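Dear colleagues,

As part of the handover before I leave the project, I'm documenting each prediction I ran so the next person doesn't have to rerun anything. This entry is a single chain, and its sequence is reproduced below.
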Amino acid sequence: MSPGDGEQVLSYPIPSEAALEPPAEWAALRQRCPVARVKLPSGDEATLLTRYDDVKQVLADPRFTRLLNADDAARLSDNESGGLFSTDMAQVIPDSGEGHQRWRRLVGKWFTAKRMAALRPVMAEMAEQLIDDMIKRGQPADLKACLGFPLPVYVICDLLGVPAADRDRFAYWSDTLLNLTRYGQTEIDEAQAEFIQYMADHVADKRAQPSEDLLSELIKESDADGGRLSDVELLATGMALLVAGHETTANMIGKMVGMLLADRARWERLLADRSLVRSAVEEALRFDANPGFGMPRYLGEEAEVGGTVLPRGTTVICSMAAANRDESVFDGADEMDLGRSPNPHLAFGSGAHSCLGQALARTELQVVLEVLLRRLPSLELAVAAEDLRRVDGLVVGGLREVLVRW
């Protein structure tokens, strides 16, 4: 049986009627066609998974790889570069085995919960300053531009030892790497060449004059254990962390605040009980209906998922957001329960490739929420929730702006 026999092939990503609401098709797919054929922006077909157990299985299964530049892999976008997941640079970091474990060991030391806890006061100070600036500029204000975007950029720039003054360039370079349909090939090629040159120069500077940042320490540690990371691996690591470290969290801050203010009772509940901040962040991550493309994987050999045999060469899209609404795992899955526990959501993936920076993202989201509740208890949306507009044309999901008043 091939996936979705007799079913209409849906265009993917699947649009929804409102920026904070899931597409109606998710529930129907989970119930009737959990292994579905979809057509990507490139015109190629892939297989979409929407059930929790299937998504978790694939994310943990080493047969499903990141080899998205294979000859028979589906192209995600119609650009030759294929976007973030399919660039040559994306393939530099080892995908599996000892090489991958070693890379995660070296880089993961910088993203432990303990290290993030030590960064909390610095993050809180940054948030305070950004909110001061937002208040001075007056209302309504775009919370995404004033707080959601700059805070994660400052933090990741600090970790990598790159100047935060270059943040607008990073944002543009990131967007071209995250392209689905927004940019043309010439624009992408030029931006990626600039990004690679910038990061290559930065790595060379750190080799010549190391300081107390992540890249300097990676150079020192990987050289010391005899299995040094090459300059191209360091370059790819720096680019990956810069893109992942600000783009997704910047968007998530905006979406989290949007969700909490869309129903003012949620915000009031947090004002009444600040101990709910941590579980509220987890629930916002689970409840996020606009996370972007999902996690693509390439199948190098035949495998069975959800009772369907997938042939070698299948490109699978794991929709973690659809899986996070699976009623068989989450009671009241379509309700936002700020005290939900346990909450085994898949927003950060699962298995060996789960998000390396999840402790960083969680800490940033918690700090932002704590400071906003303290500083702006009267915060509210300046537009109707249904008028919030989603980011289009990129691999990541987000809101274009989050207009608020207080």
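Residues 10-405 form a domain with the Cytochrome p450 fold (CATH 1.10.630.10). The two ends are 56 Å apart (CA to CA).

All the best with the project,
I.
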